[in-house]
Specification:
The chain is 67% helix and 3% strand. The chain contains 13 helices and 3 strands.
Length: 252
């Protein structure tokens, strides 16, 4: 059974343009062509694509992916073992970072010196004190939490209004990109992801690329964050995650 380039792109969640590029550089050449000369992919091609996307997700450049997959001394079992080692290392790193990265939305609101009326004016129906105890229990010993606490304690109502307005503006621009059809790995989306990282660093705590990666994963792993982000537009949390990860890879 063979598949068209459009079918493969749809199943794999990548663009037709990316598949064309993989073909042009020899990374994934379709096994066949239709009578009209169109690319046709078989099951073996899909297996190779799965390997490519796995290594790309871990940040490997395309030339290194090609070298790994085309190594004549590597067998399929060795690829699986190698991937397992990489995944275990990534899981361990993310678990190590979790206490620091999961403070993005809530920890910056701790220590807010506002009256109930001012809190409603700034945050609407969201009560920043609701998660205060949970945040302190989970992340109270981390440097990002402590830095966020120090900053938050000094902010006035006007500071919080500015921070909230900047957040809303970043979300609005992400929604515009989504609605324009721009891919999360586009230059515009990655540029806005970088602005998002710098916005966190400017207002909450120093947000490294590693921390930003953890935040991106959390935005879809924790339903509370997904729901909050998707209020601006359904699917925004996933789009934001992909844009952040692409920007991290670009700057890695």
């Amino acid at each position: 059974m063979s598949y068209s380039v459009g079918q493969v792109a749809g199943v794999a969640g990548i663009t037709v343009r990316a598949l064309h590029h993989y073909d042009e550089i020899g990374l994934l050449c379709p096994s066949g062509r239709s009578h009209a000369g169109h690319r046709r992919y078989d099951d073996a091609d899909l297996d190779r694509l799965q390997q490519i996307l796995f290594y790309r997700e871990l940040g490997f450049p395309l030339d290194e992916v090609a070298a790994l997959l085309d190594d004549p001394d590597a067998d399929p079992q060795e690829h699986l073992r190698h991937q397992q080692r990489l995944l275990n290392a990534r899981i361990a790193k993310l678990e190590e970072m979790a206490a620091a990265v999961e403070t993005a939305m809530e920890a910056r609101k701790m220590g807010i010196n506002l009256t109930p009326e001012e809190k409603f004016e700034v945050f609407g129906d969201f009560d920043p004190d609701e998660y205060a105890e949970e945040a302190e229990q989970r992340w109270g010993g981390t440097d990002p939490y402590k830095e966020s606490q120090r900053r938050a304690a000094s902010y006035t109502k006007e500071d919080w209004q500015r921070i909230q307005a900047e957040s809303d503006e970043i979300n609005r621009r992400f929604v515009e990109l989504m609605e324009s059809g721009a891919e999360p790995r586009s230059e515009a989306a990655m540029g806005l992801a970088e602005e998002h990282r710098q916005w966190i660093s400017s207002n909450d705590y120093t947000c490294t690329y590693e921390i930003h990666t953890g935040l991106a994963e959390m935005y879809i792993a924790d339903q509370r964050f997904t729901t909050n982000i998707d209020k601006a537009k359904p699917g925004l949390a996933g789009y934001l995650r992909e844009a952040i990860l692409a920007n991290v890879i670009r700057n890695g």
